[in-house]
Amino acid sequence: MTKAKSFLGGIALSVAxxxxxxxxxxxxxxxxxxxxxQGYDPVAYFNAGEPTKGSYKVTSSxxxxxxxxxxxxxxxxxxxxxxxxxxxxxxxxxxxAAMGFKFDGDPNQWKIVDDVLYLNLSKDIQExxxxxxxxxxxxADVNWDNIEDKSPAELLEQ
Length: 158
Fold this sequence. Notes:
Elements: H1 3-18, H2 44-47, E1 55-62, E2 65-69, H3 72-80, H4 94-99, E3 106-113, E4 116-120, H5 123-130, H6 133-147, H7 152-157
Antiparallel strand pairs: 1-2, 3-4
């Protein structure tokens, strides 16, 4: 087994164990209650330029997941066009998707590329992803077609 596969396998196992049942389904990274993005406001990345925790009092649902928002204005923007704001790969780690796995996306490890929000597992993973963002996005886009409907645990079994 290569170092990269061993490294990714270890991360995948720990993430899969931490990511319990997904109420929203396997294509959206959500908590067991269906909360997406750990409660961070997906619109704030675009208009505030930083991760912003939303409020449980300002919510909207999309694709069986619940999103929290910092403001009613952000909620309205989201409801008008949710696909413009939800993170790529259902909020799973963009680097992980490029490797064919589903790791939790950390809302504090993010980047907007060509008007798409991408999350990564950790600062170290984001740094690796940043070494070839276009290449990793291309790989992740191809892989996503094959992994979207599989759970993180199913991907570890392969």
